[in-house]
Amino acid sequence: MAKRWYKAVSYPLIIMILSVAVLGVAGFPRHSDGEQAKADPSEIMSNPLSQDPYFYEVKKQWEKDQVPAGMRDIPIHLKSIANQSPDAAVQMGSYQGENDVLLWSKPRGWIEYVVDVEQEGLYEMAAEYFPYTEEDGGSKQPVMMTIQLNGQFPYREAHSISFEREFVDQKPEKFDADGNQLRSLLTEITGWKSKVIRDSQNAYATPLLWHLKKGKNTIRIAVLRQPVAIKSIRLQAPSTIQSYDEVHQAYPSTTATAQNIIELEAENFTSKNSSSIQTQYDRSPLTTPKSLDLVRFNTIGGSVWYKGGQAVSWDFDVPEDGLYKIAFRVKQNFRKNLSAFRTISIDGRVPFKELSNYPFAYHSDWYGATLEQGENEPYTFHLTKGKHSIRLEAGYEPYVPMLALIDQMSSEIRNISQEIRIATGNSEDEYRVWDVAKDIPGITDRLQRLKQQFELLTEQMGQINQETNSVSQTFRTSVQDLKDLLDEPNEIPYSQLTIGSLQEKLESQRSQLMDSQLQIDKLFIAPVDAALPRMEAGFFEKVGGMFASLYYSFTADNQLSRQNDQELNVWMFKGRDYVDELQQLSDEKFTPQTGVRVKVNLIQSPDLLVLGKAAGILPDVAIGVTNTSIFDLALRHAALDLHQLPGADKLVDSFHPGAMIPYRYDGGIYGIPETTNFKVLFYRKDILKQLGLSVPNTWDDVYAMLPTLLQNESNFYVDPADFSYLFFQNGVELYTQDGLSTALGEPQAFEAFKKWTDLFNVYGLERQVASFYNQFRDGTLPIGIADFNQYMQLLVAAPEILNEWGIAPIPGTKQPDGTIARWSGGAGITPTASVLFNDTPKEKQDLAWKFLQWYMSDEIQTEYGLNLEQYRGEAFRWNSANVNAFVNMPWKTEDLQAILEQWKWIKDIPNVPGGYMTLRELGFAWNRVAIDGENVRISLEKAIKEINRELRRKQQEFNFTDSDGNVLKKLDLPQVTVPWKGAEVDVD
């Protein structure tokens, strides 16, 4: 018993003493004047955004407090700016035929207006706007703003207000040489637009409301993205939407006599407000226009029409006045047993409440969905003769109460986990006997409340969707996990992984609730009594369609065979959109220049390269291949050494030497980098400011800021699997110069390995993080290192914090000469590259090399990237490895500067036979030290032994050494020791 007590007390105490000894007083942030920053934890919010309630919560409180609705409109005089920030690029002027409009020429800064309100109440806010055209400096992104009222954000949705653009596909349709339809380019529908302000994701079918006090109120507007001209802003009385019964009673007594059904092809839409919404190709037997053998975009939506606020409109002509019903042929099988919601408007307004967030139920295949109040009770719509429009907008409002509860529960789980870590000293003592009621008082009550909340979430999911689904099942299993913990409460201190998995499960359901995919083939506006066409294919039709698809997959156009001598066969390991764009560019530019036709094939699995080699049908060019696949091909003499081709040195020199390392092998170059995957430091501006912290420049700065972060229930994120920063910045190479053995036995490698594991053992970084994106978004992990995917996820899916986060180069390590090295790369970075093949005849190799040079040129990479984003959406941002093309993408200037600074320090891991064992064994070594508590030296020595054993085995296999271990040939591994000057590109 005394031994257990000694361990329980001494272990946490020793950790505290060591932390103080290591950090000292430098462990606390200091102001520029050298005084130590003083922060009262009770006065510091962990995240101001997360403490802002959802709009629906605020609205409920207004209803409880009986706040009245505003009664009259209040115009805001745009000239009467009460205050503005120094960097606000605003002035009054003329734009697109209108005078005296507010011109916000650059998305930065803020302005304030003061409005005098005679009556306290709730008001909507409306505006007339014109997003700047591309000629004037705009792009195809929506305008993004924030709005504060009387010095604060009234709810979290006010952090992100969007003013959308509208687009239509260019006509006529285009087809490739085989008759496959190509993606249409987009045309923006420009003009002055009116909008009642809603949140950027349009989670609510009705506009946001603003509670104005009687007297003077200050409204602050900040533009975060895209320049815009504003013609007017006004406050107005809230609008109301009647119920169906109320609307139906007001219908005229006339009914439609015509029996003609208005049938609309969904792909022939009138407008869409997001370039990401795309038409799709479908081979279902009843989908029209039918095309089994060739690509024909005959539907719209699917997995690309999922985000709240994304909307599509169709125009149609009604032959005569009367009552009509509306139906759709839809596919909604993306999330099993989860409904997808659409707010449906007719002629610019929601006709009745029931069409706000109308549910489209899950179905395994295409089905007919009639807008109805009950089975076989369709809603009727009174339509007058002439032109009308219908609009469907994605949303998720029914799930908003659940999302708010998930936020609260996630925060509570993190707090519980932290208390357990403090109580246990972040280790499990198998000899200690716990009395949880005394040792961690209140923990069982809190877990019991969490169990009840999971039960409530399960019940709410059942009410919304009626059937059991993956989300409700996850909640149900979490209830059981908590029940098991509560049945044996004294085992709770040993259940940190279980509690951590609860948070991971909870966070993973968020996107499931917010995503709302729907695919549409046709729309029907039909007289009430008319019979609708059949919309579900029969069993034999489906079977026939399957056999037809199978048959056409064996036709010449769908085989991966070598084409004729004047046609390049290109395999692309990316999505359909990337393939279509490259095919279109090749047809429009490469073929006219060279006379050589190019066939770009969509390939899903990289394993087909190995199978293609065995079958003798390798392509002429492969694009989008990972560096490990290219190394495997080079190792087996399948990839072509590009170094021997004319102009290779010039092309290779245009890429970072550190990025070229994985493609160099045995004196040759076997791949050209196509994309890059930068890693940078992400930080929350608002939270660091509140904590009195600055962006760290070195790892010593990181160590110094950690105590303040930890005191305020925050932390610094580093991917536990990525050792590259601390290894490369401290002069560690993974292999010896000859490439025949590991260099991890060097003293500096041991020191770097210790620094890597100390981040988690000594400094308290999280060993397991369910989602850095989610925790960065809600502010619980306000700073950390992540990659391009994290950047795009925040940019596209977290508009509410668009102005609250920034990026910087990763922390570096000071060198003996005073410079700061920021090397990174290796673990977790998987850029793609292009490769040519030895099997290709010499004349085709020359053509393939010309194509590859053309494809990776500044001009084509720029046009390819801009087309992808402008015509397919921001999520298609092209991260080209060509630095000049990369710079031409629509980055924020300050972000681009940080990325280019970090780009200088790319240093990837060389490929050697058996090198896969290095990453594997380093991961095992980290686990043994950080999780099992093994000695650092012993763990690394075990890894070195296993790595060298596998290296020797593979060296014998590929004739680098003989069976006796004698060296037959060596690998002269490239060394990169200085930052690349090629990234010093002017971005102003």
Q: Care to give the gist of this entry?
A:
Helix content is 34%, strand content 21%. The strands form eleven sheets. Strands 1, 3, 4, 6, 13, 14 and 16 form a seven-stranded antiparallel β-sheet that branches.
Describe this structure in words.
This protein starts with a helix and ends in a 31-residue tail after the last helix. Residues 1-50 have low confidence and may be disordered. Strands 1, 3, 4, 6, 13, 14 and 16 form a 7-stranded antiparallel beta sheet that branches. A hairpin with a 5-residue loop joins strand 10 and strand 11 (181-182). It contains 27 helices and 43 strands. 34% of the residues lie in helices and 21% in strands. It is α+β, with helices and mostly antiparallel strands and 988 residues long. It is globular and about 100 Å long.
